[in-house]
Design brief:
single chain; 333 residues; Uridine Diphospho-n-acetylenolpyruvylglucosamine Reductase, domain 2; Uridine Diphospho-n-acetylenolpyruvylglucosamine Reductase, domain 3; Uridine Diphospho-n-acetylenolpyruvylglucosamine Reductase, domain 1; 3 domains; 4-stranded mixed β-sheet; 20 strands; 23% helix; 28% strand; globular; binds uridine-diphosphate-2(N-acetylglucosaminyl) butyric acid
């Protein structure tokens, strides 16, 4: 059912109150195809869980939210299973399902807000694991041809918080389901990420304990979108050359860094933002989270443009001080 002049406040985790001209929640692939056959030519866009977007203006068109559900075991061998989850499933519900069934591989990605269909778009990642490490394929609807296609891992061109869906195919396909390759026992536990490793110290290393620890770290650092509006990390962690890094070290000897691809290092954006005094800063209802400087927050009635202005001020100062252009990680709509 299409609803007219609908507020999207409850459909984005930043809690921004903008209106869409019309709105529909879709329950199945068939319903989606039928809808698009009738709306040919008129503007529309698709939202997943709304947890990686910043809405900056009202939308003159149809907003479609994928709510198709279902998790199915499609193949099983002695070492692994292929699991197909529909795009509208909640990501964390899928992680819980995997834990209950003792299927490993996504426990480090526990408690990430958002939908299954949105997960490949930014190749979600946390605590040393990225979606691509368990990704098998996804089913997409090609919006030009209105036909379904299957994309394997290679076709998705995954990168750090990146994929073909964020670039070349932006706006031209809709992901309708995702298939993951999960491990049966013995699981390969990924516990090398600093904070995770220390929190697991002395505990038995099972996929269930990893998930518990990840959930408690996330709860302690990241704001709960049900309490304070946010979209997780607002910026990407920048990757710079070793030359640039060595130059910065002279001015900032404590600059944290992680090795990346040949001759490059990754710098935690949160550290630079904190050094510049933005952590916990608040302009009206737009602010920088008190416990994690990479997360922008909406304390109530912030407009998308106010959060964007704060982001631009951060980008400007980081560029001045560190000569690093910070890239926004959330999608601006
Ligand atoms: N740090 C600070 N100040 C802060 C927070 C962090 O200086 O307020 C520095 C510290 O040096 C710390 C380092 O940043 O050791 C890394 O911090 P953290 O482990 O919290 O991770 P992050 O780099 O800030 C990334 C992801 C998160 C993910 C965590 C854990 C990106 C853009 N963000 O954040 O992902 O949960 O690692 O793996 O890569 C998201 O994408 O929305 C997200 C929350």
């Amino acid at each position: 059912m299409i609803i007219k002049n609908f507020s999207l406040k409850n459909y984005n985790t930043f809690g921004i109150d903008v209106e869409t001209e019309s709105f529909i929640a879709i329950q199945s692939e068939q319903e989606l195809v039928k809808l698009l056959e009738t709306t040919k030519g008129s503007p529309y866009r698709v939202l997943g869980g709304g947890s990686n977007i910043l809405l900056t203006e009202n939308y003159k068109g149809l907003t479609i939210v994928m709510k198709n559900l279902g998790i199915e075991l499609v193949e099983e061998t002695s070492d692994f299973v292929l699991i197909e989850a529909q795009a509208g499933e909640n990501w964390h519900d899928l992680v819980l399902w995997a834990l209950e069934n003792d299927f490993g591989g996504i426990e480090n990605l526990a408690f990430i807000p958002g939908s299954v269909g949105a997960a490949p778009i930014q190749n979600i990642g946390a605590y040393g694991v990225e979606l691509e490490s368990v990704f098998h394929s996804c089913r997409v609807l090609d919006l030009k041809e209105l036909s379904f296609k299957t994309f394997d891992k290679k076709a998705c061109s995954f990168g750090y918080r990146n994929s073909i869906f964020k670039n070349k195919l932006r706006g031209s396909v809709i992901i309708t389901s995702v298939t993951l390759r999960l491990q049966k026992k013995p699981h390969q536990i990924q516990s090398h990420y600093g904070t995770l490793q220390s929190a697991l110290d002395g505990k038995s290393k099972t996929i269930q304990t990893v998930a518990e620890v990840v959930i408690s770290i996330r709860k302690s650092k990241l704001p709960d979108p049900n309490e304070i509006g946010n979209s997780g990390s607002f910026f990407k962690n920048p990757i710079i050359t070793t030359n640039h890094f060595n130059k910065l070290l002279k001015k900032h000897p404590e600059l944290p860094h992680y090795p990346d691809h040949d001759g490059h290092v990754k710098i935690p954006a949160a550290w630079m933002i904190e050094q510049l005094g933005f952590k916990g800063k608040r302009n009206g209802d737009a602010g920088v989270h008190k416990k994690q400087a990479l997360v922008l927050v909406n304390y109530g009635n912030a407009k998308g443009s106010e959060l964007l202005n704060l982001a631009k001020e951060i980008q400007k100062q980081v560029l001045q001080e560190f000569e690093i252009p910070l890239e926004i990680e959330v999608n601006l709509l």
